[in-house]
Each structure stands twice: as structure tokens, then as C-alpha cells.
Amino acid sequence: MSGYTKLNLKDDVEDMAAGRMPPGIEAHFAKGALDCEKSGVTYFKLEPDFHPPFGHHHNEQEEIYVVISGGARIKVEDDEIELAPLDAIRLAPEATRALKAGPDGCEMIAFAAPNPPGQDAEMQPGWWPEPGSDGI
Predict the structure, then answer these.
(1) Closest by Cα among 79, 57, 27 to 125
(2) Among 93, 99, 114, which Cα is nearest to 44's?
(3) Is the distance from CB of 52 to CB of 25 less than 8 angstroms?
């Protein structure tokens, strides 16, 4: 293996959300494509006001989200935090979280470590309910 791997997160990495998630999100998980051994990185693009139908947390993996354009609101447990370009937020593995893009959409990079084998994420359906429901 080479001492480096270079690629474009949007153009060279498959959009894993296509056909698996509702329209309005791109998710380019580059851990494998970059040959990451101890970490991972993902490029996300969310259309205006999009949010996934679930939240998630991890068993081991800490994440850092960095907004690169647009804005978003993130729900972490019972808190909601606004994120603007170049804002970064660290998320402990056990903290359940979900993003909702702002009116201009959102592009962000997520960094994660360590890189445990298998599926480390646990999904929480209904974490961000639609307006008018019994949720937030």
C-alpha cells in the first residue's frame, strides 16, 4: 500500500445515499476508498430543510462534523445547536444525533475515529419528527 491516497470526495466516491435514503441527501463515505486504517471521512450534501428519518449514535466512534457551506441545525440528545460555515462540532460516540439542513442546504465533512470493524452505528428511527407530530 502507498503512503498516501488522493481522491475527490464528491467525484471519486460513490453516493451511498442514492436509492437507500429519501431524496435530498448525498453521502460519500470515503473510508474504504481512501484506505483508512484508523479513521474515516464522509462528504455529505443536504438539500434545503432536509433531515434523515432517524438519528444515530455509535458504540466506539467519535465524530467531528465541519460545515463547509450553507448551514444546519443539529439535535444532540435534548439540545439543538445551529451550525454555520466552518463551525465544527465533536460528538461523543454515545450521543444520539441528527442534522437538519437550513434553508440554503448544507455541505459538510464528517471525520470519525477509531475505525472499528463492522457496523458501529445504531439507528434511532423518528429522532427528528416532522412538524406537527408529538416530537420537537
Answers:
(1) 57
(2) 99
(3) yes
Domain range summary for the chain, segments of one domain joined by +: 25-125
Nearest to 72 by CA among 111, 31, 122, 25: 25
Residue type present at position 111: F
C-alpha cell at 124: 434511532
The pTM of this model reads 0.89
Architecture of domain 25-125: Sandwich (2.60)
Tens digit of each residue's pLDDT (9 = 90 or more) over 92-105: 999 999 999 999 99
pLDDT in tens, 62-91: 999 999 999 999 999 999 999 999 999 999
DSSP secondary structure string, 109-134? EEEEE---SS--EEEEETSSPPTTSS
